[in-house]
Amino acid sequence: MTKLVERWHSPHLDRTVEVARWGDFGRPVLVFPTAGGDAQEIERFDVVSACGDLIGAGRTKIYSCDSINGRAILTHEGDSLHLSWILRRFVEFVGHELVPAIRADCRSDDIGIITAGASIGAYNALAALCRYPDVFTDAICMSGTYDLGRFMDGPTDDNFYWASPIHYVGSLYGDHLDRLRQRAVHIACGEGAHENIGESWHAAHVLGSAGIPNRVDAWGPAWPHDWQTWRAMLPHYLAGMS
């Protein structure tokens, strides 16, 4: 399997970001790491190999990038206003830097991209789709943490609201909302150790109230908040899309 790793200085984030790619052909899938993960985390935890048949058959091409916002939250990088700024700037980095890079790599100016992630990566997948429905066609959100307000130890501002889908989708309207209503959010969650499926149901309710297609799949108590769950989930959903 072909692998490519690139790094560049992001003007949106004012720091170096690593981006990795596995595969040469197929539908592009952007997989966000867990909270503090880097671009190659999904390879170390065998998520890439779990999707190996899809990649090998040329059906799927997987990309990932450093979890800049998740890392900032975990390391308590600044106060809540700074973290709110990081949340917004990371989503803008995805839309204005990472998406053009993926499309250039795919040699297509308009190819649709699937987005996916687990835990805070699920939040990033949902945030990317909701802000850029002209680019992302589906979001695969696994064991998601969607309300990042719990990590803020002080006041937030419009940057937090802008970056938090469960807070802003209810106020969307016009062409943006019309396009988003043509997309699909696949919400999967186990009910085993350290899972909180309540977050998934809440996100689904917010999306559904705005007319955004979504479905919650409860995988049951045998599936914990851990990598064995996400190794099973991601190829399962990608097989029906790519």
How much β-strand is present in the residues? 15-25%
Strand order of the largest sheet: 1-2-4-3-5-6-7-8
Global geometry = globular
Number of helices: 11
What is the CATH first-level class name?
Answer: Alpha Beta
**CATH homologous superfamily name?**
Alpha/Beta hydrolase fold, catalytic domain
What are the low-pLDDT stretches, counting only 5+ consecutive residues below 50? none
The portion of residues assigned to helices is: 40-55%
Order of helices and strands: EEEHHHEHHEHEHHHEHEH
Explain what this protein looks like in three dimensions.
This protein is an alpha/beta fold. The protein has one domain: Rossmann fold (3-Layer(aba) Sandwich), CATH 3.40.50. Helices cover 41% and strands 23% of the residues. It contains 11 helices and 8 strands. Strands 1-2-4-3-5-6-7-8 form an 8-stranded mixed β-sheet, with helices on both faces. Strand 7, helix 10 (197-209) and strand 8 form a beta-alpha-beta unit. Helix 4 runs antiparallel to helix 5. The chain is globular.
Key traits:
Rossmann fold, globular, eight-stranded mixed sheet, alpha/beta, single chain, 242 residues, 8 strands
What's this entry about, in short?
Helices cover 41% and strands 23% of the residues. The protein is α/β, with parallel strands linked by helices and 242 residues long.
